[in-house]
Specification:
Helix content of chain B: 25-40%
Helix content of chain A: under 10%
CATH class of chain B: Alpha Beta
Order of helices and strands of chain A: EHEEEEHEEEE
Oligomer: heterodimer
Largest sheet of chain A: 5 strands, antiparallel
Bound molecules: zinc ion
Structural class of chain A: mainly beta
Order of helices and strands of chain B: EHEHEHEEHHHEEEHEHEHHHHEE
CATH topology of chain B: Peroxisomal Thiolase, Chain A, domain 1
Number of domains of chain B: 1
Strand order of the largest sheet of chain B: 3-2-4-8-1-9-12-11-10
Chain lengths: 146, 394
Amino acid sequence: MSDWSKVTRPIPVPNEWTKPFWDAAKRGVLALQRCQSCGHFQHPPYATCVECISTDLKFEAVRGAGTIYAYTIMYHTGDKRFASAVPYASIIVELDDAPGALLAGNLLEAPHTEAKVGRRVEVIFEKLNDDITLPQFRFARIASAE
Amino acid sequence: MWENRCKVAVSGVGFSKVTRSADIPLAAHALTAVKEAVADSGLQLADIDGLATYPELPATGHTEVDGISIVSVNCMMTMLKLPDLGWHIQVGTVNIGGAMQQAVNALIAGVCKYAVVWRAMHNPRGTYQNLPGAYAQGAAQFTAPYGFGGPGQGMAVAYTRWLERHNQDREKMATLAVTQRRHTQHNPHAYFYGTPLSREDYLNSRMVAYPFCLFDCDIPVQGAVAIVLTTADRARDLKPRPAYLAGYGQRLHFEVAGRIGSLSNYMEGGSSSAKLTWERSGFSPKDVDVAQIYDGFSASVIYGLESYGFCKEGEALDFIQDGRIELNGELPLNTFGGSLGTGRIHGLWHIIEGALQVSDRAGSRQVKDANVSFVGASAPIVTGTTFIFVRDPY
Ligand SMILES: [Zn+2]
């Protein structure tokens, strides 16, 4: 299992589009940008709805359950801050509540070899500092239809 | 069909030395390549009146210094002091293929007669791709905190998606790496000329970012390549046999920056560019005699073969087997070795090879009866451009 204890992660810098996402994460809530015209959830946040071009977008809470959409196992130790966690799984998650929105994360609390497309995961939160809490993922604890 | 098909041709081509380390400033490499391309055409430097490039250094976290880590149009203008310069451009999107297309347009518009397009690539000291410093801004705020660095990992996630969705096996990619390295042995300008690669070398090589092992990634190098483009009637009076441009296209699909892992980003990017190219040239994939498909990471070739229409989605790793992409195969592919063989110089080398093949100028790697030549000059994602060159104008 990857040892994340010595890793120093780059700290996200919220901007005009992304601040509500990070504000929610700080409260332990996953909130994604949702089009108020057509109902589409999207991530990363953008100026318009990528489905219907509407600019009427608001952040709404979503459940943290989803599946691994894609992943990579990092072996290269070029960035020394992450070297102690190598090999580690960086994953892309598609949430049940937000088809098409893709969230990056690490697969925590499991060996990197367990990362596979289609496996069920759930969100957990990793506090980086007083301002920023990072959504992360682990395998789903509640047995659900895989 | 495009009314301007075969009105512009590639004439001379030029290469600098390709080295691992950046011992001399990049400007010198670019100058060598440009001078060689001009001489190959049988022209004088003073004849050149158009300049185009895409100068970006794709490494992250390094300072750009013009003449050392990039070679801008300003730098080239300063060095060459062209007496009759009439047109120049430096493109910001669509990569070097976009610069090439702008030069084609300028020639058709009649604002220059002989345009030079070059691509110069620097290999910075230290790690090529760096994560941002202590803070992650913009699109990187959703990826860098999780250890996603350069484009390699972004492409690796899409590749696992492709592999597992299509129940495919990454070991089949050995055929691409080994075949291209064999082609490389016919290209004295390439970084890996003289260095063979076996199937075992590929299968035993260290992982970089799974599913990519070392030999799925092109090696960062320092070097430059250049071409002379001119109108078809002028090209016929020059030394080399012209390679006529029958059509081109560019990616018309873009997904929100930071949305990584999405296969549609590659597939729709590639198919939109190829569709324009097939329609403008009047050809289809079955007409193609030889293909160059950008291979900075091996998986780009998969997305290229599938999105351009050479095979169905999910089948590319089977398509490249059984000798199909050999020099005498059904679709000789990356016949100059690709970026995996030459080193990381980006897609102008793919364009050069596409042109050389229809001009019968590819030496010992010449494909027999290469009349229709296809080029995918960069990854279908973000920067994709495609081209068709022909031996005989029509
Ligand atoms: Zn909408």
